[in-house]
Write a structure and sequence with these properties.
310 residues, mainly alpha, 75% helix, 0% strand, elongated
Amino acid sequence: LFWGAEMHDRKKVPKETLDAAQRQQVLNKIAAYKALVAGCFERRKQGDFSREALKQLDKLQMINPELYSMYNYRKEILAALLGDLDEQGKAELVKNELLFNAKVITERDHKSYCTWYHRKWVVQQASTPDVLESEMRLCAKGLNVDERNFHCWGYRRWVAGLLAGHGQWSEDKEMEYNYQKIEQNFSNYSAWHNRALILDKESDGEKLSDEFELVSQAMYTDSGDQSAWIYGKWLNKKLPPDEAQSKQEEVCQELLEDTPDAKWPLYTLAELSEGTRAVETARGHYSKLIECDPQHAEYYKWRQARLDAT
């Protein structure tokens, strides 16, 4: 499986009880791992910045990519090697390092903070447009497999910023890609979050109104999917208060005509009513929510009690 085997919405498989032979195999692996770690720390202590030391780190980081001290050692080795190479040699070393880093991500752990941060450092050693375009393709490939991987989304934003510095990327281009990911799955929380970060400084009223049309489509498609409602709540703060109120109320009322006990339209109307001090209306919505969403009944009762206290 590209980009790691762990995906969303999969239950963990219970661990099996090991017999004596299996337990010994595990103990042998632990001993070998400890020896490898000790050897790498000793090499660093001795100031070994050779390619052989780099090979030992390859073995270690395919086993455990979260040992951040070894990524610091890796940087020290690479910096030493880069200092002795011509431009062609530097490009080759960076290329190979990115390939190994991608192997760790795709085969070992696609959510390793250390590995993603190290990748940034490597790209900074040769952040040419060609390298950056290649990185964007890598991110697209990864997000096709795990569309919510926030490490990959964050890295993509960083690369896009570098490309923009070369005049080869724009917010419109990023919004277009983001729209494609949301069209594939309205429940892509990471894509909505990425969209909010892009629009955070947006002040064009027409553009923001168009954005509400997009999020309302998601609400109509699946009124029970909270991702669109959470994004819509953020977006409302960007719109003029009266416009935000009327647009949101219209969507909620239409949805409730078809599904009177729809949780998110009811909850949104309750919050909107609170905001305009329509206390009794808000109380009525929370009462309805207590009936149709008993799992969160205590929370709705707390919201009602808060109405009395304010």
